Amino acid sequence: MSSVLVNCSHCEVSADVPAAGVLLDLGAAALSWICLECGELDEQEVPQTLLQRLIDVGASLITSDVGELPPHPEAPPSGDPFTLDDVLDLHDLLEQPSWDDHFEALDSVASEAPQREHTHQRMADDAA
User: Fold this and answer.
1) What is the tens place of the pLDDT at every residue in 5-46?
2) Is the CB of residue 117 less than 8 Å from the CB of residue 110?
3) How far apart are CA 8 and CA 13, in angstroms?
4) Is the pLDDT of residue 107 over 60?
5) Neighbours of 69 (CB within 10 A)
6) What is the CA angle 90-95-98, rounded to 5?
7) Which of helix, strand or coil describes residue 15?
8) List of residues 6+ apart from 5 with CB closer than 8 A
């Protein structure tokens, strides 16, 4: 396993960091790692001539130009929180043979309340 000799700018300790433990930003030509001594995230500029060598020994590549990220899957949707009463109502609704008709009727209501559309769509997707 290859390692990279780095000098922490926070605690000024030199350390051999495993190549897989460093992040290489090609756009900024910078190397980032977490110092094993002080635990701080450190960054150091890297000459262009060393970039390919770092890639070859196993440094992970990142990009600083990621644009707008999609919402995290665990990010809560906007609107009222889902309550235990909602769970019971959904359970009762799913026991009916025509439960999907109820969700189709919600499409017209959803256009009036956009934050509820996501909640009801998620309920329908989870039930399917």
Assistant:
1) 888 888 988 888 888 888 888 777 888 888 888 888 888 888
2) yes
3) 5
4) yes
5) 6
6) 95
7) strand
8) 14, 15, 16, 17
